[in-house]
């Protein structure tokens, strides 16, 4: 039988859950990925921020909030509009 490594402990998720920070950290991580993906798609498709805001039928400042990785106050409606503007579908899943 293999001996367990005495230096291996709990996971980072366990630590963040114990300190009550897991939900906040997860939210920021998800938002960063979404903002990065939309930015990448805009670059590939050569879509300016002004054009993206028009495609989303929103303001440039609302788009800036969406693309701000640290701003987690984004509505599902805004996310759906952004996804459709770059030819994607928004899919949300609980796991």
Supply database-style keywords.
434 Repressor (Amino-terminal Domain); 0% strand; elongated; 60% helix; 95 residues
Would you give an account of this structure?
There is one protein chain. The model has no long low-confidence stretch (mean pLDDT 86). It is built from five helices and no strands. 11% of the residues are buried. It is mainly alpha-helical and 95 residues long. The chain has a domain at 23-85: 434 Repressor (Amino-terminal Domain) (Orthogonal Bundle), CATH 1.10.260.
Q: Estimate what percentage of residues fall within beta strands.
A: under 5%
SSE order in H/E notation?
HHHHH
CA-to-CA gap between the ends? 34 Å
Oligomeric form: single chain
Helix content: 55-70%
CATH class label of the domain at 23-85: Mainly Alpha
- How many helices does DSSP assign? 5
Pick out the low-confidence regions.
none
CATH architecture assignment of the domain at 23-85: Orthogonal Bundle
The largest β sheet comes out as: none
Number of strands: 0
CATH topology of the domain at 23-85: 434 Repressor (Amino-terminal Domain)
How would the global form be characterised? elongated
Organism: Oceanobacter antarcticus
Protein name: Fis family transcriptional regulator
InterPro entries: Lambda_DNA-bd_dom_sf
